[in-house]
Structures are given as C-alpha cells and as structure tokens.
C-alpha cells in the first residue's frame, strides 16, 4: 500500500479534463491550497504543483525544476509552465464540468484558470493515429518503483513528478502516409501492435525504448487524446520518481543525442510543456505538509 495519488497508477479513465492555473493574488495562496487539499482526493482529481508556486512558497523539493525549452535539429520544444495542474478523471463529462467549477471556486482569488484540455479514451486506449498507447508501461511493483518517490521524509514519500505536453496532430498528413510508413513512424504494426524489429532508427519506439538508456529510463505514461474546435492530438502525461527518464527520452526524440529525429515529428508537435510535483495523499486528502502552509 502506498500513499500516492491513486489516479496515477490507475488505468486512464473514459473522460478527462486537464486544468492549468496561474497565480493571480499572492496574498491568498495558502488558504486556497488548503481548500484544494480537501477537494482533491488524488483519484478523481490528480494534482501537480508547478515550480513557480513552490518557489513562491520557498519550498525546496529535490529534483523539482522548470520544464526545459529548447530547439534541436529544427524541432521546437516549448515550455509553458503553470502554477497548478489538475487532471480531472471520470466517466461522465458533466461530473467533470461540475468538479472543475468547484475547484476553480476553491482556488479563487489566488489562482485563475489559464487553460482547459478536454480529453477522452479512444477505443481500448489508442492514440488518434490508431496505435495503442501505453503498451510498454511498467506494471505492479515496477510501476510503483518508476513513478513514485520513495523517501523517509513525511510529505515526500509517495509523491511523483509529472511531465505534461499537449501535442497537436496533423492527421491529414498521417493519413497520406502508406501503412508501412505509418508503422515505421511508430515502430509497431497498427493491425496487431507487434513491435517491428526492422523499423528505422527514427521510429518512435526505437527512440524511446526504455531499457536502451543508461540508466534505464522507465516512466508511467497516462496520455489521452484531446479534441476541440482548434484541432486534435494527444495530451502526453508521464509520471516518474524524477524527471530524468522523461528528459532522456525527449533528448533522444529530438536528436540531441545523435541527430536522429523521432519520426513522430512528421505529423505531430508539442505546443505546451510543463513540469509538476504531485504530492502524496493522507486519509483521502492531499498531504501538503512539506509546503508548511499553516
Ligand atoms: C504525440 C506524441 C506521442 C505519441 C502519439 C506517442 C505514441 C506512442 C506509441 C503508439 C507507443 C507504442 C506503444 C507503447 O509502448 O505505448 C509509444 C511508446 C512510447 N512512448 Fe510515445 N508517443 C508520443 C510522445 C511521447 C513522448 C513525448 C515521450 C517521452 C519523452 C514518449 C515516450 C514513450 C515511451 C517511453 C514509449 C515506450 C517505449 C518502449 O519502451 O518500448 N512518447 N508512444
């Protein structure tokens, strides 16, 4: 039994709404966080706190840093940050809307909502390209070891670090590819999800093969497709006991290691990027003891 936010280790839900808040009124931050702690159970609402907020509260969390923005081999990785990230999880979109209103009110006037991403499970857990996403996620004890911080410090044990990026797909471009080119982009066969040994070095799963890094770079991915009037894509979400594994994968995807760019960039690109620290839970409430709010 661990004291992580339970939604981190659970399979993705049918529906989700991702909320991003920024600081509006510094004088009421502590009270607002106190209200959030009782509303967010970590199961229906998973919460992450951003670098700017932790710095403002003078809370030093080992391993916490700002999302890296960089350009490599012509690929732009944007960093957009955020003070609080909430992942609302459920079966009913109506419930998620009401939960969002409740959270927004509880966080006001200290925080205002900056961005909302509506997401959903596609079939058995596919990306909108039609490929299964999450196949190589560690499970059981391996999932706990790779996603959760193990610490003697109260308020740290069971916490997690999450990297979040909204990716926008160009599905027309993807549809224009021959089936074999699509399979070589991902490195798996769409029809049966088999990994392709003869896929090129640029194939996504060749770039990110978790056991090929030194040290091995395992993360728990809980990404979900999103869509709105502006387009569609994947809201990429990866939990880790640090950001190191995610960063190693991102470096290799963008060719920073060996100038080989992940073929995914032919049809999709990230438009946001943020890092958040997800506190543990105690008795169904967020444990914010390390923030010393009182
Ligand atoms: C739009 C963006 C992305 C799409 C559509 C996508 C899709 C996929 C798909 C279809 C797979 C194969 C099945 C699986 O094991 O899950 C996969 C694997 C994987 N992806 Fe992504 N991915 C995206 C972005 C990223 C990013 C940004 C990272 C990390 C920086 C990442 C890390 C991984 C990892 C670690 C694996 C498993 C590799 C292995 O060990 O075999 N992905 N992804």
UniProtKB/TrEMBL annotation:
Residues 186-208 are annotated as: Disordered. Transmembrane segments: none annotated. Its cofactor is heme b. It comes from the Bacteria. The keyword Oxidoreductase applies. Residues 127-282 form the Dyp-type peroxidase C-terminal domain. It holds the Pfam family Dyp_perox_C. Keywords: Iron, Metal-binding, Oxidoreductase, Peroxidase. One of its GO terms (molecular function) is peroxidase activity. GO terms for cellular component: cytosol. This is Dyp-type peroxidase. It comes from Alkalimarinus sediminis.
């Amino acid at each position: 039994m661990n004291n992580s936010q339970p939604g981190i280790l659970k399979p993705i839900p049918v529906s989700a709404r991702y909320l991003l808040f920024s600081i509006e009124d510094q004088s009421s931050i502590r009270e607002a966080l106190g209200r959030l702690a009782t509303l967010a159970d970590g199961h229906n609402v998973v919460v992450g706190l951003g670098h700017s907020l932790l710095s403002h509260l003078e809370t030093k969390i080992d391993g916490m840093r700002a999302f890296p923005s960089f350009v490599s081999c012509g690929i732009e990785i944007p960093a957009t940050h955020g003070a609080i990230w909430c992942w609302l999880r459920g079966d009913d979109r109506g419930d998620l809307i009401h939960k969002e209103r409740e959270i927004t009110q509880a966080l006001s006037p200290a925080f205002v909502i900056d961005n909302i991403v509506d997401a959903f499970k596609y079939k058995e857990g596919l990306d909108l390209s039609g490929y299964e996403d999450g196949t190589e996620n560690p499970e059981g004890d391996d999932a706990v070891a790779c996603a959760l911080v193990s610490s003697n410090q109260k308020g740290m044990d069971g916490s997690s670090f999450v990297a979040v990026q909204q990716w926008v797909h160009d599905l027309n471009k993807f549809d224009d590819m021959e089936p074999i080119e699509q399979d070589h982009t991902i490195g798996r066969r769409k029809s049966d999800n088999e990994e392709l040994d003869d896929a090129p070095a640029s194939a996504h799963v060749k770039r990110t093969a978790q056991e090929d890094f030194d040290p091995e770079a395992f993360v728990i991915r809980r990404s979900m497709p999103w869509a709105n009037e502006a387009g569609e894509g994947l809201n990429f979400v990866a939990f880790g006991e640090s950001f190191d594994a995610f960063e190693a994968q991102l470096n290799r995807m963008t060719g920073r290691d060996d100038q080989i760019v992940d073929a995914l960039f032919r049809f999709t690109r990230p438009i946001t990027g943020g890092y958040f620290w997800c506190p543990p839970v105690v008795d169904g409430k967020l444990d914010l003891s390390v923030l010393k709010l009182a």
